[in-house]
Amino acid sequence: GAGKTENTKKVITYFAFVGSTTVKKAPKEGEKKKASLEDQVVQTNPVLEAYGNAKTVRNDNSSRFGKFIRVWFNNMGKMAGGDIETYLLEKSRVTYQSPCERDYHIFYFMITHEVDLHEACKLSDNIYDYPLMSMGKVKVDSIDDAEEMQIMDEAFDILGFSNEEKYDVYRVSALCMHFSKLEFTGMGEVASPKSLDAGENLNDILHFAESGEAMYDAFINPKYKVGTEWVNKTQNVVAVTVGTGSIIKNIYGRLFRYLVDMCNSTLCDPTMKKVNFIGVLDIAGFEIFEFNTFEQICINFVNEKLQQFFNHHMFVLEQEEYMREGITWVSVDFGMDLAACIDLFEKPMGILPILEEETIYPKASDQTFEAKLKAQHLGKHNNFAKAQSKTDKDAHFAVVHYAGTVSYNVTGWLDKNRDPINDTVVDLLKKTKSCALMNEIYSDHPGQTKEEEDIPPPGHRRGKKRVVVKSKTAAKMANFKTVCSYFKDQLNNLINMLMTTEPSFIRCIVPNNHKKPGVVDPFLVMHQLTCN
């Protein structure tokens, strides 16, 4: 709540205004008014905020993802397009909120029916009908959900979404809500549906099968390939509940990615020559919570890297000034202060490489991962310490970051890194007859139907091109990308790109923790100033 996103909006609006291309012409008779590029750059905001922002304990409109927005200019200094790259959307929030927090805004906007979604999305009027979207607060004083829904709906139009595309986005968002209503019951090894209502709603929206029962079946009896055979493996209630959560998060993450891609294709004008860009990076700051997990260690690692970039850059500038003024001075690079902590993360046998290794190893568990980390680093690396959290007694280890020591809890990290989903359910979703978007967001997912149809007749031996890979592990990795490896690629690309720019920094400081104007808490301010 220090004002990072609000500053970003101001900066982007300013560049759009200064670089605006033409004087706005009145549209001719009968012509549809075409939105200008400047308007479109500014209008990406309501859409991305609806899907990527949520109420947290400290901030009613907290961005739960990082973004880098580039505004391109031609050689005349006029605006020539834009693009957005997003980082680390907090998907866990879709299916879990703590008591004082709220899920992503979009669910509460849609339930207002400011745009009538009773028929198209089969939504009720009560958010409490959707258990995973109503675990915390459902109303925020500072946000008028109905008004925001209208603003977002108009933003879709300005961005050039067709009516069909816009309603498809609403439908897929509503699916996440309906999935949260699927109920299963059953003792022992096999789950069974408690009621079929939610499944029927899903089928009414997607038309993937004769009845909604097929969806329950896909969750309870998913198909797996064992060698060349397909087998069904029944799931118990716990497995099915985890499975529904994974599907909801996966659909939401892919929908968010699609929205960003659609915004980018709107903002990209291939006819204009792009010479240089001004970019704005708005990413979550350093985080220490009462319970710190995989999401926190990722964001804190990003901040460690960005802080190093800042130190290094500032220092080089400062040093050049000393040289110009002829001050005698021995060079030191403060950018190196953070190197030890960064190495702890990314060097071979560092925290992230060990996580990657354990993720692929079939017999690995949270315990073996923790043991490996401690064997490798505890007592050997100054930035790796024993857990010392007062709020999380079960934390497993601590990292001494530049901004403070954070104790992390590794429960469930291997699973979060694998991000597994039920392929049988995805396959069913892709059979939809009424929502083209579902197939688009899963276009890179092979599904399972195709392989069955491809089975050769008995007795026929089919030659197949095989990827030659040296080890079994490598073979698995050849068609498997973990969350962590994707995140590391993104981060490296970001840092490499920042290295080629001339950065300016805006320091955002939160004055108090009570969301009160005109109140300054000196200790809080001082703490932030010592952190960065």
Description:
This protein has 532 residues and is mainly alpha-helical. The chain is 45% helix and 10% strand. It contains 20 helices and 12 strands. The strands form 5 sheets. Strands 4-3-9 form a 3-stranded antiparallel sheet, sandwiched between helices. A hairpin with a 2-residue loop joins strand 7 (223-226) and strand 8 (229-232). Helix 7 crosses helix 8 (213-220). The longest helix has 31 residues, at 237-267. The radius of gyration is 25 Å and the shape is globular. Mean pLDDT is 89; it is low at 455-478.
How are the elements arranged and paired?
Layout (H helix, E strand, L loop, with lengths): L3 H15 L18 H16 E2 L7 E2 L2 E8 L5 E9 L4 H4 L9 H6 L34 H14 L4 H17 L3 E3 L6 E4 L1 H10 L6 H8 L2 E4 L2 E4 L4 H31 L8 E7 L11 H31 L14 H8 L4 H10 L5 H12 L6 E2 L11 E5 L2 E5 L4 H6 L4 H7 L6 H6 L7 H5 L18 H7 L4 H17 L22 H10 L1
Antiparallel strand pairs: 1-2, 3-4, 3-9, 5-6, 7-8, 10-11, 11-12
